[in-house]
Amino acid sequence: MKIATYNVNGISARLPVLLRWLAEAQPDVVCLQELKAPQEKFPLKEIQDAGYHAIWHGQKSWNGVAILSRSADIKEVRRGLPGDEEDVQSRYIEAMVNDVLIACLYLPNGNPAPGPKFDYKLDWFRRFTTHAQMLWEEDIPVVLCGDYNVIPTALDAYKAERWVDDALFRPETVEAFNKLMQQGWTDAIRKLYPYEVIYTFFDYFRDAYGRNAGLRIDHFLLSPHLNKRLLAGGVYHDVRGWEKSSDHAPVWIEVKD
């Protein structure tokens, strides 16, 4: 089963790119982030015509997450991260697909930091870590994937020293990510490529993509059940260079059925 995650940076604007990539890559399951579309504006017909089932959690102008499945049914488990009833941002959706629990997340950016947005990021991270622990204890195959807006280590950023004061790489953010990892999750891409420079995000400015001046902020965290079944993975780097593409590239893993 091939599982992919892709921050599309606006599904309406990027729909031709998304559909082209789906046709070429044919992932079995796709987690999308940053739909930037209200619930009723999700392009369901186009997604279905491409051969995919879909569930989504939209929001006008901002955020938004979705899970697509090419063959297996999607059984929605949860939409919205528990722990704060007043949080209305659409950043989390969870479903069972082919006996795997798929958690699709769009963790807050947090800039400028310090400040209220950074406080929200850290609070969201704490809530997510609490929920992840509950999923871990269910002892089932789980993948936590999406745009984490976290640079885990200096290897994951071009000229990492320039990011030390950014919300994606501040010590509090890295500490929160490490606390999550200490539950026992496996960073799938780093397991496959422990020492390689791999980026998933390239800013639109200063020819970042052309210079390979990127960040690795889109991650797959696997429970032990899937860690044992991990076969391959990587980044669809070329997609970032397509016309009118997102500033993220799709990331994928393949696990044994």
TrEMBL record:
- The annotated site for Transition state stabilizer falls at N149
Q: Which UniProt keywords apply?
A: Hydrolase, Magnesium, Manganese, Metal-binding
Query: Which residue positions are annotated as catalytic?
Result: Y106, D147, H248
The yes or no answer to whether the keyword Hydrolase is present is yes
The note describing how and how many cofactors are bound reads: Probably binds two magnesium or manganese ions per subunit.
Q: Which PROSITE patterns match?
A: AP_NUCLEASE_F1_1, AP_NUCLEASE_F1_3, AP_NUCLEASE_F1_4
What cofactors are annotated for this protein?
Mn(2+); Mg(2+)
Write out the residues that bind Mg(2+): N7, E34, D147, N149, D247, H248
Q: Where is the Endonuclease/exonuclease/phosphatase domain?
A: 4-248
Query: NCBIfam families this protein is in?
Result: exoDNase_III, xth
Belongs to which family?
Belongs to the DNA repair enzymes AP/ExoA family.
Give the protein name, as stated in the record: Exodeoxyribonuclease III
Query: What is the gene name?
Result: xth
